[in-house]
Design goal:
- With 110 residues, this protein is an all-alpha fold.
- It has one domain.
- Helices cover 77% and strands 0% of the residues.
- The protein is flat.
- Its main location: membrane.
Amino acid sequence: MHNWIYLLLAIVAETVATSALKASNGFTQLWPSVITVVGYAIAFYFLALTLRTIPVGVAYAIWSGLGIVLITGVGWVVFKQTLDAPALIGIGLILAGVIVMNVFSRSAGH
């Protein structure tokens, strides 16, 4: 179970880091730049722990899929970025893929 917590922590850290990357304005703002570097370091550390027990393809698919959904939410709420219907459908399909992998795949290392 702890491997899934590690993966969730990696995803959250990556989302924070990517949000800070946007706010860093090309690494010209000190604190968002620091948060970016530290956030990615934390994300990759927890991803490495995750890969001890979850297959790399499964972990990366979940990492990227949930990361896309979360960062899109952050973009919408924090940065006031909007999405059209095809983009929302695409994100829904990504989320559906993550759910299918976790619920139905034996490869997910349950």
